[in-house]
Design goal:
Blueprint (H helix, E strand, L loop, with lengths): L4 E8 L3 H12 L4 E5 L14 E2 L16 H4 L1 H9 L12 E3 L2 E6 L3 H10 L6 E4 L15 E6 L2 E3 L1 H11 L4 E3 L3 E5 L27 E2 L6 E6 L2 E10 L5 H7 L7 E13 L7 E4 L5 E9 L5 E6 L5 H5 L2 H15 L9 E12 L11 E5 L2 E5 L6 H14 L22 H5 L2
Parallel strand pairs: 1-2, 1-13, 2-9, 5-15, 11-19, 13-20
Antiparallel strand pairs: 3-8, 4-8, 5-7, 6-7, 10-12, 12-13, 14-17, 14-18, 15-16, 16-17, 19-20
Helix pairs in contact: 1-5, 1-9
The structure holds flavin-adenine dinucleotide.
């Protein structure tokens, strides 16, 4: 056992939330260490569709609520970062599409325009036609209406790579993460949020949710190396549940929302980034397109197709369902030689009533411990804001630079289509 090392902020989990926060803290002069037990981005982040939502999709459920203001500002903040002029320098990150589209197949076109007219969609929503249509929809047989949303789609592998560069030498790989407490502070009973069986993700960013029982954490032991920190942030996605259990903390509780995504690769596919609307409040299918190493495009299919009914189907039935959707919606696309795969993945979020969908980042805290979920890749800046606000409120200032323990650097996660559709 070596003597403990000290850092200002110790972050657990190297997905988008931890990596973005790490880069922001370092930019503000804080010393940081980030520990990852698998691969950077390899949890949900590299399995996401990379859409930087601005709230338009969520307006499908009605007008944007006050709590969704944070999401409305995300496209601007990401665009500035991508231009190198924002809160982080993300220049070099690949933008797959400068816009995401709302697309209504022929039969529903009327519904879409009246739908849009009736909603408080904050970003500009312009109808596009002819040569301005996404390449995959430019076909004489295409019928329907398409609207352009001010939402970017990013190549997440290049984003994770860029954030790992901004992390300098702060990234650590460790498997065994143990809690380091002051000797008197072992909680006898599991701690939890007072009077809240179910927390809400609608809290104001300046007022983080409090854990009732102080977890008097001094730091963590990472594969036997003690690291002490002024603050410890758990941003381990689905891993937060086990970390909280290890700390003896019952709340905030986490929900998993299972998805059964479909991937298809073929020479006939052209880029498409769109929510295709059905009759219901959720997109019938959400399609994003990702470049494979062999130069072909992989379509990654989510939306309603991947939710409850899709989760209940086995892999073969899910592929058949996706084939039927694409054949019905885009009959001119040749899928005869396409390769297909599915991916089961859970979204990890703070527990919500009726598995609802949170629309801002969530942070709970007590003493030196902070724990949260961004709830969306797009909301990573909002997650970092909440942590920074908590540090500012507590008067936490940057201290001396931390010394890196002798642990290896975690590897970068790989794009899922590389393993699923080689
Ligand atoms: P993760 O990316 O899961 O990262 C957590 C990290 O912590 C992982 O690297 C994991 O290995 C590590 N870890 C876990 N336990 C431990 C431990 N004990 N010690 C150390 N490290 C640990 N959001 C959008 O905004 N736009 C989209 O288009 C979008 N599409 C999505 C599509 C799908 C299929 C899914 C599943 C999600 C999508 N999301 C999207 C949501 C988004 O991906 C997540 O909200 C976001 O990536 C969560 O980031 P995170 O850093 O909290 O978690």
């Amino acid at each position: 056992m070596t003597s403990p090392l000290c850092t200002d902020v110790l972050i657990v989990g190297g997905g988008i939330a931890g990596l973005w926060l790490n880069a922001r803290l370092r930019r503000q002069g804080f010393s940081t260490l980030l520990v990852e037990n698998a691969s950077l981005g390899g949890g949900q982040s590299l399995k996401s569709q990379g859409i930087i939502h601005g709230g338009a999709k969520y307006a499908l459920h009605g007008a944007l609520s006050g709590a969704s203001e944070a999401i409305a500002d995300m496209p601007r903040r990401w665009r500035e970062a991508l231009a190198g002029t924002g809160e982080l320098d993300l220049s070099g990150v690949r933008v797959l599409s400068d816009a995401h589209y709302l697309w209504s197949p022929g039969t529903l076109a009327g519904n879409l325009s009246s739908f849009l007219a009736s909603k408080a969609v904050r970003s500009r929503v312009d109808q596009v036609k002819g040569a301005d249509l996404p390449p995959a929809l430019q076909h004489p047989k295409f019928k329907g209406k398409v609207y352009r949303l001010n939402e970017l789609v990013l190549d997440v592998p290049s984003l994770i790579e860029r954030l790992s560069l901004l992390a300098g030498d702060s990234l650590l790989a460790a498997q065994q993460i143990e809690v380091l407490r002051s000797t008197t502070s072992e909680p006898a009973e599991p701690a939890e949020l007072s009077g809240q069986a179910e927390q809400s993700a609608q809290a104001d960013p300046r007022e983080p949710t409090e854990l009732t029982k102080p977890a008097e954490l001094l730091g963590l032991r990472l594969d036997g190396r003690e690291v002490r920190a002024q603050r410890i942030v758990l941003s381990a996605g689905a891993g937060n549940a086990q970390l909280l259990a290890d700390l003896g903390i019952r709340q905030p509780s986490m929900q998993r929302r299972p998805l059964h995504m479909v991937l298809v690769k073929g020479p006939g596919l052209k880029p498409l980034y769109a929510h295709c609307l059905g009759g219901g409040p959720k997109p019938r299918v959400t399609i994003t397109s990702h470049p494979a190493a062999d130069g072909q495009w992989v379509w990654y299919l989510g939306g309603d197709l991947a939710e409850a009914a899709g989760v209940a189907r086995d892999e073969h039935a899910q592929i058949r369902a996706a084939q039927q959707e694409l054949t019905q919606l885009l009959p001119w696309i040749d899928l005869s030689t396409a390769q297909w795969a599915t991916l089961r993945v859970d979204r990890a979020e703070p527990a919500q009533s009726s598995l609802g969908r949170p629309d801002n980042a969530f942070l709970a805290e007590q003493g030196s411990l902070l724990v949260g979920w961004p709830t969306k890749l797009a909301l990573a800046p909002d997650f970092a804001d909440r942590v920074l606000a908590a540090l500012a409120r507590d008067g936490i200032q940057p201290g001396p630079p931390s010394t890196r323990p002798d642990l290896p650097r975690p590897p970068l996660g790989q794009p899922i289509w590389m393993s699923l559709l080689p």
